Amino acid sequence: MGGTREEEVAPIRILSQTSNVRRALLVVDVQNDFCPGGALAVPEGDLVIEPLNRMIEYFDRKGLPVFFSRDWHPEDTEHFKTWPAHCVQNTQGAEFHPDLLKPISAKVITKGFSKKDDGYSPFEGVYLKGDDWPTPCQLLLGQPQGTSLYIGGLATDYCVKAACLDAVKFGYSVYLLTDACRAVNLKPMDEAEALEEMRRTGVVFTTTEEALKAAVI
Ligand SMILES: [Zn+2]
């Protein structure tokens, strides 16, 4: 997977100019139910954890914002007419995978929590803190202009794609971490088609290795 050589080189240039570029990391739905053994397991879903942990560790160490999205469905939802029941609120399946690093500073975006709501995109979600009013995802992520948003997680052909397309629409510079996402592939071409749609929209493909190598400079 991935784009042309030029596309792979581009983020290195941009990441090197650290002065004016705000960076943020969005980790999409790395929950037990989407990993092997889960209710809606994505093939090799757990393989995203190691590369994502390297990004999470780096962002946390640099004091850069890290966001985790999660599916958080009620037991009874129209969403389960399309999919087997998964990520039901307050169940073990809805918890983040135990191997995923979870820095204290990371903020969780909750989505898909109503009976009618699919919640594919984290931008449909909210940040919940105590009794405060929920904060919409976009408000939480802040100013899109001048922000490079790095995205990885599960699954490439659904929530990761929805996250990337919405992020571009809102004006973020979006970098898909191609080694840190996996697809459901209900149909064999789903992943390829999702990647093509993202590329066409302006999402830049990179890898965690490239992003981190560039960031150290
Ligand atoms: Zn769901």
Automatic annotation (TrEMBL):
Q: What is its EC number?
A: 3.5.1.19
Keywords on this record? Hydrolase, Metal-binding, Pyridine nucleotide biosynthesis
Q: Which GO terms describe its biological process?
A: pyridine nucleotide biosynthetic process
Every Isochorismatase-like domain range: 24-210
Q: In which pathway does it act?
A: Cofactor biosynthesis; nicotinate biosynthesis; nicotinate from nicotinamide: step 1/1
A GO molecular-function annotation: metal ion binding
Q: Which InterPro entries match?
A: Isochorismatase-like_dom (IPR000868), Isochorismatase-like_sf (IPR036380), Isochorismatase_Nicotinamidase (IPR052347)
Indicate the segments annotated as coiled coil, or none if absent. Answer: none
Look up keyword Hydrolase and say if it applies. Answer: yes
Keyword Hydrolase annotated: yes
The UniProt entry's sequence similarity note says: Belongs to the isochorismatase family.
Q: State what protein this is by name.
A: nicotinamidase
Species in which this protein is naturally found:
Candidatus Yanofskybacteria bacterium GW2011_GWA2_44_9
